[in-house]
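Notes from hallway chat w/ T.B., transcribed later so I don't forget. T.B. wanted the structure written out for a chain they're using in a teaching module, and asked if we could keep both sequence and structure tokens in one place. Agreed to drop them here.
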Amino acid sequence: MIQKISTAISSARWAVIFSLYFLTAALTLIPYFGIQNDEALFGSGIYPPSGVIYSQAVRGRELPVMLISYLGTPKTWFYMAWFKRWGPSAYSLRLPVVLGGIGLIWLFRSLIRRAAGERAAVIGCALLATDTTFLLTNTFDWGPVALQHLTLTGGVVLLVRFHRNGSIGALAGGFFLFGLGLWDKALFLWTLGGVGVAGLVVYWTEIRRAFSPRNFAIALLAGSLGSLPLLVYNYDTDLATIRGNARLTTSKMAFKAHVLHITLNGSALFGWLSSEDPRLLGTVGKPLEPRTLLERGSVALGAASGKPRIGFLAFAVAAAVMLVPFLWNTPARRPMLFALIFLSVAWIQMAVTKDAGEGVHHTVLLWPFPHFLAAVVFDALATRIRRYGPWIAAAVVAIVCAQDALVTNNFIGETVRHRATTQWTDAIYPLSEDLKHRKPVHVFVMDWGILDSLRLLNRGRLPLHVGSDPLMTAQMTAEDRFAIRQWIASPENLFVGHTEGNEFFTGVSKRLVVAAAESGLRKDLLKTIADSTGRPMFELFRFVPAR
């Protein structure tokens, strides 16, 4: 007993170390990135202009329920209270997500301890905390994925507790978290389906023994309570979530498998978060020199290590899969099989869903079960090979974690030198400040990736409007032309868009200029706003009579 307690304390100490590493890396990265549009999307349920598609009146106030047909508002509700104390900023937005990532590390430790023991828990926490993809997606929550991870893992942990001691509270809590995950994002069905199939196949005897009308009713009621807002929305809209998103296809399967691979090896977000813009080689926007001791150390370590972009986690998971037959007749068989079935069922669902599985924010929903599989396998290997097994397992895990940490360091170093891509640009901060001081009558946003960020940073105080919709095609209706003439008629109306070459909706700004010329007006460029490398990212303009 004393030895077990000592081992548990030891694993907890390691979890503290891994959590501190995760926290340090996340806090280092936060200030280099502007607030991205999807990262700020939940703010449409807090500040005007409202982007909520469904709300319910509660005590005379409209309470946001659904942002889009498959995305609910639990994150909105949390930040509604959070921002009353700490207003929107890079840190106040991201710190709760980072703390959620640390919470997941500890939930994950609890899960693996119960499935495979203390040593496996140390291995799993090490693999998860040093995973570059996990760090980035649980710092910059554009998916969003942070709450998905917490509700999935927390729900499984509570159900394991129910299995151990029969706690009705744990049963209800587990299914409530599953329901909450569904409301947060209906794509939770992928991972919930994986847990359900894996549980029924691997732990059927335990599930059958625990099944009773009372337990079934508790689970159903708790799950329904957690997902109640989603259920009410679909009741009122004739199953809009299913009708709008349940489309299947087998195309792009190879590409989706590739996305899974680069998500595992940590290379997927280079060039998507951190900039690799070739224009940095020009005379404007040159790569920045590191200034602080931390920046210089990160850049130097990246250069010394060869600027690695590929971590070894994908190799570790692949090796774990291949070792499963070798470890089949060990106590690790059932947790290994559970992880394999979960990963297969969950990934196949996203792979056959149209417009899904093609981005990191989808494939990372499988987390943390790739790490679970690897941890259980390496721990079982250490036990199976009695003499040298623990040393072999420790060496493999240390190499994997060290390589992933070097990839993370290289990501930090590249970010220090090149900053962020267009959609993550830190130029959003000076743009927000400039617009706030101008106090415009109307601000028309002419491109994607701007409005939600400005709304959040200014707490809805800017008079923002979507200006791109009438100009998405060259063929405009009479109604579109009338609207544009109203917008450009007053020089007090301001327009904001990306500079040429940084546009997401290419051609929109040019069509606006042509439409203005037809009305005898010209574009008056008020200001070009650059990022911290000097790259011009945004332009602020209005329309005045042509000379």
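Follow-up for T.B.: The CA atoms of residues 381 and 389 lie 6 Å apart. Might be a good example for the class.
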